[in-house]
Amino acid sequence: MIGENYIHFYDIDSTNNYLKNNWRNLPSETVVRASVQNSGYGRKGNHWSSELGGLWYSVLFKPKSRPLNPWHYVRVFSLAIYDTLAKYSINAKIKWPNDLLVNDKKICGIVGESIITGKVPNAIIVGIGINVNNDIPYHLKNYAVNLKSLIDKEVSVEKIMNEINHKAYNSYYLRYLKEKSVSVITKKWLKVLNIKINDEVTLINLNEKKENVFIEKITPDYLEVIDIDGNIKKIYAGEISVRKS
Ligand code: BTN
């Protein structure tokens, strides 16, 4: 069960860092939550603001066999968070490949990381940040939203976390493990993605370089896009951000 081993800190640098330093001594599916993070980070190493009131946690997986792709584990949680928000009558979208948006504003960011000491990953860490009761700083009001303002009341972050973990385990993770393929959960993911075939999107690379392209194909593992010169490229999660143009 996800979270059977549960560790809570009032404050810590980052729950992902905690698992990176301690994964050897912890069982698979350990959950680490912090009320406040002092150095929370997201994809591309971006700073992740983690004030009191938000849900900041990480989950450790130590898979015994393949598949070992961290982005598949991220997808398990994106879908579980989508379902949990739907329970609160919130219609979210998954921003390819992993974040959750409500009315184009970010409510949740997820980052997947692998620990590799040999040829294949030994551990996978999924870090989840959800704006629940934390106030959104004024300069981010156009880009981010919290659950409290959407449903007009505060909700316990632990309750939300338990709902997500329960859903992730029972509806997606067990199926994914059984089939050893992410395809079983991809159908639903495709349905709730914020992009579709033929959409024009802006790719933003690690150096913030932007390029407009059209989406040709969405597969479980990558996007195939075509640029204005007709070149076809594959885009993998993690290396690039995709923004709707
Ligand atoms: C992103 O949108 O880039 C992903 C943000 C992930 C933030 C979470 S908060 C809990 C965990 N600990 C971290 O340092 N990061 C993740």
TrEMBL record:
Record flagged with keyword Iron-sulfur: no
Positions of the BPL/LPL catalytic domain: 1-176
Keywords: Ligase
Keyword Oxidoreductase assigned: no
Signal peptide feature range: none
One annotated Gene Ontology cellular component of this protein: cytoplasm
InterPro entries to which the protein is assigned, alphabetical: aa-tRNA-synth_II/BPL/LPL (IPR045864), Biotin_CoA_COase_ligase (IPR004408), BPL_LPL_catalytic (IPR004143)
PROSITE patterns xrefs: BPL_LPL_CATALYTIC
One Gene Ontology molecular-function label: biotin--[biotin carboxyl-carrier protein] ligase activity
NCBIfam families in UniProt: birA_ligase
Full protein name: BirA family biotin operon repressor/biotin-[acetyl-CoA-carboxylase] ligase
Protein source organism: Oceanotoga teriensis
Lineage: Bacteria, Thermotogati, Thermotogota, Thermotogae, Petrotogales
